Model the fold of this input.
Amino acid sequence: MREILFAGLGGQGVLTCGLIVAEVALFNGRTATWSPSYGSAMRGGAANCTVKYSREMVYNPSLDEPDLLLAMSESALALHGHLVKKGGIVLVNSDLVGGEGFGRTDVSVHRVPCSSLAQRIGQPKGANVIMTAAIIKLLGDFGFEDGMRGMNDMFRKKGKERFEKGNSAAFEAGYSAV
Amino acid sequence: MAEMMKGNVAIAEAAVRAGVRFYAGYPITPSSEIMEYLAKRLPELGRQFIQSESELAAINMVMGAAACGVRALTASSGPGISLKQEGISVLSDEELTCVVVNVVRYGNGLGTLFSSQCDYFRETRGGGNGDYRCIVLCPSSIQEAVDLMLTAYELAEKYRVVTVFMTEGALGQMMEPCELPDFVEPPKLPWGFDGKYSYKKIGIFDRDSMQEAEQLNRKYETIRAEEQRWESENVQDADYVFVAYGLPGRAVKGVTRQMRAQGLKVGLIRPITAWPFPVKAFAEVNPGVKGFITVEANATGQMVDDVALASKTVFRDRFVPTHALPCVYGLPSRKFIMDGFGQIVSGARKEVY
Done:
C-alpha cells in the first residue's frame, strides 16, 4: 500500500493533485482513498489531503506514515516533514520553500520549482500537475503513459477535456523534472 | 466501473435513487455537501428541496412529507440532529417514516469539526423524549453507505420507524471508488394522507397507551430478532474479539488481519446496525474468549455498554471482561490499537465491565 500526503496552501491545487494520483491508481487497477483536511479552511490557509492506494482494500484511509510528502509551502514542510516514513520521499516546491534542511537525513528530498516551471512552459496554472507527474515518477508504481492516461481520463470525465493539451504539457514537464 | 466519489455526495445520490422525493435541512459541517448536492439534483428531477430556516423547521417539514406518504430525508451533524430530536420523537410516535443522516462530528455542545462516533448513545437510545427506538445503520465505506440507503427506507417502512443513517465526518468528506445502485420508484406509502380524510381522528385523550405499549414492544422485539446486521471474522477461536463499527471498524479489520498473520488469536465483530445491536454475532464467538475490546471514536466509551450486555446475554455462565479503547476522534492508528491491546493483555489496562 502507498500513502501520500499532499500539503500546501488553499488555492495551490493540492487537493486536485491528490485526486489525480488517486484516479491514476484507480485507472491502473488499484483501489484508492482520498481524505481531505476540512473545516474552516480558506484560500491561503493550510490545505492537505491524504491519498492511499493498494491492490487490496484500504482499511484506514486517514493520515498515518506517508511514503511521500508533497510540500507546496514552507508551513507544509514544517508541519508534516516529521511524519514521512524512514527512507521515504519529500517533494518540495522550491519556488516557495527555502534550501535549508528540515532536520531529516533519513528521507530523500527532491526539489522542483513548479511555479516558475509552469510559467516557463506557458501553463501558469499547471504547477500542481507538474508535481503530480513528479510524484508518479518518484514512486515508480505507474509509468509515464499510465499516469498521463489516468489523468486525462479523469479530466474528461469531469468535462474538462479542453485543458488536456495544457495538462499534458505540464505532466511531461513534471515527469522530466525529477 | 466504480468512480471516485465523495461520501456525502454518494449518499445524497443514493438517496435520490432510493426514491427520495423531499429533502429539508439546514447546513452544518461536515454534512453540508449532502444538501448542497440535493439543492441542484432534486429540482432537476421535479422533486422538492428546501433549505429551511432552522433544523427544527426542517424536521417538521420532513414530517409533513412523511405524512403525505413519500420518502423524505434530512441530514445534519451532531448539534443539528440535537435540534431535530423533538421531531424525531413525534415521527416515531405517529409511526411516520423517514431517514435522518447524521454525519457525526466530535464534541459536546457545539463541538468541533473532527470526525467522530460520539453520538452513539443518542442515536441508539432515541435522543428525544419518550419510549421509542430508531433503526441505526453505520456503514464503514462509501460503497456500503450507498448500498444501505435503499435498505434504510425499506426498514423504516417495514416497521414504520425512523432510520438513522449514522456516518462520520471523515466518511462524508473522503472519496473512494463507488458504484451507484439503479433508480427505484417507490409506491406511495399507504398510510400517507389521501386528501379525503379517510383516517379516523384520534384525540390525545382517546389514546390507549397501555395497548400501544404492547404493540410498540412487539414491534421492537421483532426488529431486534429480525434485523441485526454485522460482519465478523475469526471469532470462533479468538482469545480476544475486537468490536468496532464505521471507519474505525474498517481500520480495526486491517489491524486484526495483520495480528492474525502474526499468530495472535484475535477476531472482529463490526456492527452494521448499531440498533438493533448485533447480539447474535456474539453467539458465534469462542466460548473460551478472554475478552472483548471496543475501539470507538469517542472519549468515554459508549458501545462498550452494548458489548457487555450482548456478552451477558450470550455467555450466561460467566462474565467476559469487556474493555474499551476510545480514540476520542478521528481514526485509530495501528499503533493505538496495538498499544491498547498490549496493555489489556498485560493487565495494565483495566476492563470497563
User: Anything to note?
Assistant: The longest helix of chain B spans residues 142-159. The radius of gyration of chain B is 21 Å. Chain B has two domains: 3-226, 230-346.
